[in-house]
Write a structure and sequence with these properties.
Elements: H1 7-12, H2 18-28, H3 35-55, H4 65-71, H5 80-100, H6 110-113, H7 119-135, H8 139-176, H9 196-201, H10 203-227, H11 231-254, H12 264-279, H13 285-290, H14 293-331, E1 336-339, E2 342-345
Antiparallel strand pairs: 1-2
Helix pairs in contact: 3-5, 3-7, 5-10, 5-12, 7-8, 8-10, 10-11, 10-12, 11-12, 11-14, 12-14
């Protein structure tokens, strides 16, 4: 076995400290904005303008989205007030991102270049297509656009998570080799929360994906109502989609890998579930005409239960991890915990 100073090790890990590498990255960040940066700002402006013209001003089809949603009310339609708050957060946060990713400090960030690439422009294009087709009540096309939008946003989350995982592995390797200490680590391009880079480069897309995930089965339900199919199919979409979303969010909250758990996506899904429950407290006449009281009560309780459980798990999980990290910091110098003679890694909150 070769020692730590062997030529093989030196060849595999050239003597260039992570700090020097980060300095090189900073110099590279002074380069001009590339195609991805320009596509991001163009896509955002396109999505913002068409969403406002269609959703608020009613340019497409002559009526705003709120009236169309009321016309095609479903079992998984949140209260109208919930739409306004979340879309305001989505567009404000993505607007800040669109400006920040043009700055020299962030334009070459792996989360921007590799985590987004041109996928964000695809998502904005799908958002634009949905705003136009939904405004004109072309529901089959609107559903396809929503599916493309959901797939693009989930792909962004996966790509950014891959960037996070790779960065964390590089940092862990550098620390093990002694190239850098945790105290010297002043910049982490994976942008873990609650860093500013997280709020600028990752948070906007987690919020957007968290809202579009429940909006996709909502759009399917709207399509079913539009086509006038048996209300039983609408019920099946509702009772399958909400538990699936709940299970996926629980998985994100209970993960133990580096960088986990994830709170933003489950938090937005919980927000949507509570909005559905709130709307079904006093359901619209069209809902009462298609569904009996037992069905409405089932969906009200199911959505409320899932939303409340997610919030409770998020709160308890964050408190438990914060307390555990504090205890480990006081009693241990490494990032492992010994249980029955075995060493286990722990996840920082």
């Amino acid at each position: 076995m070769t020692g730590p100073e062997s030529p093989e090790i030196e060849a595999a890990y050239p003597k260039q400290s992570p700090r020097a590498k980060r300095g090189k990255k900073k110099r590279e960040k002074q380069s001009k904005a590339n195609v991805n940066n320009l596509l991001n700002i163009v896509g955002y402006l396109l999505s913002l303008v068409t969403s406002y013209l269609g959703g608020v001003a009613g340019w497409f089809g002559g009526v705003p989205n709120s009236e169309i949603s009321s016309k095609y009310q479903t079992l998984v339609t949140p209260s109208s007030a919930y739409f306004g708050y979340i879309w305001a957060l989505i567009f404000i946060s993505q607007g800040i991102f669109a400006v920040a990713q043009l700055l020299p400090k962030y334009r070459e960030q792996p989360l921007v270049q590799n985590g987004l690439g041109s996928i964000y422009f695809l998502a904005c294009s799908a958002q634009t297509a949905w705003a136009i087709t939904f405004g004109y009540a072309i529901m089959p096309a609107a559903f396809v656009a929503m599916c493309v939008l959901c797939a693009a946003l989930l792909n962004i989350l996966k790509r950014q998570w891959d960037v996070v995982f790779e960065e964390e592995n590089e940092i862990a390797t550098a620390i093990r080799l002694g190239d850098i200490t945790e105290e010297e680590l002043v910049e982490n391009s994976a942008a873990p929360p609650p860093s500013l880079a997280y709020w600028l480069l990752r948070f906007p897309f987690a919020v957007h994906a968290g809202w579009i995930a429940p909006a996709t089965p909502l759009m399917l339900s709207v399509l079913l109502v539009y086509q006038g199919v048996d209300p039983t199919y609408e019920l099946w979409v509702a009772v399958i989609s909400i538990p699936l979303l709940f299970g996926g969010c629980m998985g994100l909250l209970l993960r133990e890998e580096s960088g986990a758990p994830v709170y933003t996506f489950p938090g937005v899904v919980a927000y949507a579930c509570i909005g559905i429950c709130w709307e079904l407290q006093a359901p619209a006449y069209s809902i009462l005409a298609r569904h009996d009281d037992a069905t409405i009560s089932l969906m009200k309780n199911l959505s409320g239960f899932c939303g409340a459980c997610l919030l409770v798990v998020m709160l308890s999980r964050s408190i438990a991890l914060l307390l555990r990290d504090a205890w480990l910091k006081w009693n241990h110098t490494d990032e492992t915990l010994s249980i029955d003679g075995e060493q286990y890694p722990y996840v920082k909150a």
